Amino acid sequence: MTAADPPAALRLDRVGFGYAREHPVLHGIDLAIPAGQTVALVGRNGCGKSTLLRLLAGALHPTSGRVLLDGEDIAALGRRAIARRVAVLHQALPPIPGMTARRLVRQGRFAHRGVLGMLRDSEDDITRDAMARAGVADLADRPLESLSGGERQRVRLALALAQDTPVLLLDEPTTYLDVRHQLEVLDLVADFARRLTVVMVLHDLDHAARYADRIVALREGAVAADGGPADVVHDSMLRDVFGVRGRVLIDERHGTPYCRLDTPV
Question: Coiled-coil segments, which residues (predicted)?
Fold first, then answer.
């Protein structure tokens, strides 16, 4: 890192990981993610995207190399210490009968308030602000099971925001959402990203190119491409990383690449 480079909020230093020694999922991953950057992880199913995100969250520990959070080895940090600095939006939330949106979002304050603080029924200003920013304040007393998919996802975003962390990790935040709700959620993430470091797993390349500052493409557990959307998303990347033939065009309105997919290679 040179004197002109921003400090890395997250760094993977020669990281390898495997659920079994004979079946490595990731190998030789070197990434530095500066504070304030929005990164999209893309690639085919099984290439290691979600595993990489779990390593960044400290939910998994590498079998080789190190994951650093603000220069500290994340393996040496406790779960609560990590939760004060990294919020995670997982693909799905198990059903919780009777849970209201307000009660769920309040769970995001546990790392800061502790058990005794959570026993108090009052919500703090950060909880209220998180719900307002995610556009779900009017849903506060609604049971989660009564909400639409898009509403539930916005409530889950409010839960992540309520942790009040500088880093936000999102694993396929648009899964199971229709097109309108996908755009609503990604527009919210883009608004949050002005103040946060964001890493998100996305399947839609057009969304990745539009909403991320940087795209990291994985292939067979290694980094196949890394850079700005215009540098990464091109015809040969579609072929080499995704195994499809296609054309990459430029969206005149947003100035970002978008794909027209033709056939599998």
Answer: none
Looking up tokens 């020694």 gives 21
In this predicted structure, what is the pLDDT of residue 6? Answer: 61
Distance between alpha carbon 59 and the CA centroid of its chain, in Å?
14
> Could you tell me which residues come within 8 angstroms of residue 21 by beta carbon, excluding any fewer than 6 positions away?
63
Task: Report phi then psi at 33, rounded to 5.
Answer: -115, 110
Q: In 3-state terms, what secondary structure has residue 246?
A: strand
- With a pLDDT cut of 70, the percent of the chain lying above it is 92
Exposed, middle or buried, 179 (CB in 10 Å: 0-12/13-18/19+)?
Answer: exposed
Would you say 119 and 176 are in contact if contact means Cβ atoms under 8 Å apart? no
Q: Provide the pLDDT for residue 76.
A: 95
Give residue-wise pLDDT tens across range 81-125. 999 999 999 877 776 788 999 999 998 888 766 544 544 555 678
Cα dihedral sign, 103-107-110-115: positive
Q: How many CB atoms lie within 10 A of CB 169?
A: 25
Question: DSSP class of residue 92?
Answer: -
Per the DSSP assignment, residues forming a β-bridge with 214 are 39
